[in-house]
Amino acid sequence: KNYSKLDYPESPCLFVEFHGSDAGVAEQAETFGLIAEENGGGPFLWTSVAEERTKLWKARHDAYWSSLTLRPGAK
Fold it and tell me: In 1-75, which ranges are continuous DSSP H helix?
C-alpha cells in the first residue's frame, strides 16, 4: 500500500490474465472466480477496462519492488 499508493487489501493474491473474445474472457473470469470461491479464495477482482487492468498489473509489479524495501541491501 505505502509503496504503490493503491487501496488493495494487504494479503496474498494471485494475478491471472485471460485472452480471447470479450465473451470468452468474461466466461473464463466467471469460472475462475467460482473456482476461487469454492476453494476459499477471495475476493476475485477482474476487469476488461484498460485503465483498471493497468492498475491491477501495477500492483503486481510493485509487489516485487516494495518487497525489496523490507530488507535493504538484499536481493
Answer: 22-38, 50-68
CA distance 74 to 37: 36
Per-position pLDDT tens, the chain of length 75: 566 677 777 778 788 889 999 999 999 999 999 999 999 987 888 888 888 888 888 888 887 887 888 888 877
Q: CA of 52: how far to CAs of 63, 65, 67, in Å?
A: 17, 20, 23
Start-to-end CA span in the chain (Å):
21
- Cα–Cα distance, 50 to 19 (Å, whole number): 13
Chain CA centroid to CA 28, Å: 15
54 with 65: CB under 8 angstroms? Answer: no
- pTM equals 0.68
